[in-house]
Amino acid sequence: MTHPTGLYNRKKSLPVGEENKNHVLRLLADLLERASLSTNNAKNIGFIIPSKRNEPEKFVAVCEMERVLDDKDLLHELAMNYKFHDRSTAPDSFITQFNKLAKDAYWNRMQDELSLKPPSYNMVIQLIRDIKQSFKSLLRGKNDRALYTVTLLLDEKQLMRDSAQVRNATVLNEFRLIITNLMGMVCCPARDEEIMKLKKETEPIAQLRGIMEVLEKMKYEMANYLLASTRPTIMHYSINYEREKFSEMRATFGRKKFPNTMAWLKRTLSSINRTHSGVVVGDASCSKNFQTIKLIDIHMPEYFVEPYQELIQIEKRYPLPELLEIDAGRLVRLKEQMFRLCACAASMQITFKSVPSMVTHPRRQHLAAQLTIASTNFPVKYNQSEMLKNICSCVLASITEHSQESNGPLITENKKISLHAQIVSINCRTSAYSSVRVQLMAYLKNLLLIANRQHVSFPVEFQDYREQTIELARQFIILVTFNFSVYGSFYLKAVNEG
């Protein structure tokens, strides 16, 4: 079983070479086939490669994966990303607008067919065939009995036989009911609300269109589920590929010093030597004093967690280590994400201390969501000070409404002024922020140290932001695991040599 971060147990590395590359390509091809994604869909499903240096953001479709496996930067992004992106759903894109027009035309044509006297069911019958195929892909290898039921119930021949009869409209309604009931059985909980809305829809075309849209979402979810099962293989291939490239680069350019990398290691590891007198970080005796973390095929001493944690602290503005430049954009996003998360968690803790009744009040969940929205656009649209003012406005509005409820607490103006002063002054040095960040850092470290991540206690300070915290942890752990797996041997040797 995996931890909620979506990370898999550590495994042995795979050999590098053309055979392994072909193995990865076969996995991706099988993934698309099992997810029942058409050739046209495959052109719009892939990965977003973030902008880097002077290069703009780019989209790489799954059908271009063979090229990706020979491009270090693209392969790295494939290994670090964990979800497919559907380019056809990007807002305001030409593809999105074109697809919308095409779909509108399709459903309008079906409406015209059903409006004929007598109605034509040709398009509906083909649609049922498509729906049946979608169910087959979603149920394949999972539930043979359900798959048999789908084949039996969604019999387009029955509709074709009955379409010439008076009760054809009733038959169509029965098919729609069967389909929505089947979707309710096989969909994930996240789709329950959409399925309920579909069942309540009475207009045939609107319901059929809604059914197809939800089935498409379910197929993408299936593709991402299957991608997760392929991820260890892709990551191993990418790690070994980058190791080879690093070895080739060092062989070509000699013993390059990487000054920023060395400064990063010495700066962050110097505290270890000061704390444990007589221990030289990097030497053989060090393993007796520190726990090691088993990654894919290398052991990382626990004290290496601190250098990586420095990289995601927003106030740290040291030059980026050369061997992490490929993840520069990712690290910037992690810094911003962590600051937003800690600022929101700290604001909640300050609020609870000032207004204890908020801890168990239903309004708490709404306030947490409001703080997330208030901090979302930092630093794109507003700076740290503006973000904190937005957060403070949400807090003051929430506690004011709380105080106006029957049996609500008395909240004086002085208390509001105090809350305002504490929240707008949140920064990396204030006790509230430092306290929650210490808990978050401990959580991240324990996720790496403890083999069974299910046993790692989740920090209570972040219980209002569980999903965001787990997502940050997932990204951080993948980055640490990948980078140390590629360069760990170099780091250890470099530190030992001083």
UniProtKB/TrEMBL annotation:
Pfam family membership, one? Tcp11
Q: Which GO terms describe its biological process?
A: signal transduction
**Signal peptide residue numbers:** none
* Membership in a protein family: Belongs to the TCP11 family.
What PANTHER family does this protein map onto?
LD23868P, TESTIS-SPECIFIC PROTEIN PBS13 T-COMPLEX 11
Q: What is this protein called?
A: CYRIA/CYRIB Rac1 binding domain-containing protein
